[in-house]
Amino acid sequence: MTDLQGFNSAPAEQLRPLLTECLAVPRWVEAVLAGRPYASEEALLAAADDAASLTDDEVRAAIAGHPRIGEKAKHGGVSARWSAAEQSGVAESLADRLKAANAAYEERFGHIYLVCATGLSGERMLDDLAARMANDPRTETRVVNGELRKIAALRLRKVLHPHETQGS
After folding, report:
1. Is the peptide bond preceding residue 37 cis, with omega within 30 degrees of 0?
2. For residues 8 and 63, what is the distance between their CA atoms, to the nearest angstrom?
3. The model's pTM
4. 10 Å Cβ neighbour count for 10?
5. HEC per residue, 38-73
6. How far apart are CA 149 and CA 155, in angstroms?
């Protein structure tokens, strides 16, 4: 896949796994596929964002495939490479602090802390995590949905432009 034309014409069976790597929500994947052909990359991204208004159950399912901030993905593949690149701002020296903060977050909300990490330093992520600890669970689920939308958009751009380095 190298461009919008290829995306629009590719068989659904070829795109479905790539879209699932962007956002592991079957309803979202099928909505993005059903919207083809897209007139522009912007139209694709807008449709993908519209479809990414997730239910609480979909948010929880989508989180399940993401590694904790500061940890490597448990499985290989394209999303593991994307996660590693997206978290490249996490300094090794913050590992213990991130581990403790992640544990506190998981205790409070029952799932991993998720943020669109591209371009964020480890310190910035720690600050964000601390601020989000004040959220009630419903608000936090909506915040996570917003982060999943950002991640999906970044990864969808990578599907369209696999040979570009886009700030990961």
Report:
1. yes
2. 27
3. 0.83
4. 16
5. CCCHHHHHHHHHHHCCCCHHHHHHHHCCCCCCCCCC
6. 10
Most distant CA atoms of the chain, gap in Å: 47
Structure confidence by residue, pLDDT tens digits, 14-56: 999 999 999 999 999 999 999 999 999 999 999 999 999 999 9
Give yes or no for residue 87 having a pLDDT over 60: no
Beta carbons of 51 and 32 less than 8 angstroms apart: yes
Q: Are 98 and 122 in contact (CB under 8 A)?
A: yes
Nearest to 31 by CA among 156, 116, 161, 117: 156
Domains and CATH numbers, the chain: 4-160 (1.10.3330.10)
Structure tokens at 25: 């929500």
Token couple for 75: 């499985």
Note the residue count of the chain: 168
The dihedral of CA 166, 147, 65, 36: what is its sign? negative
**What is the phi-psi region of residue 36: left when phi exceeds 0, alpha when psi lies from -120 to 50, beta otherwise?**
beta
Residue reference for tokens 């940890």:
71
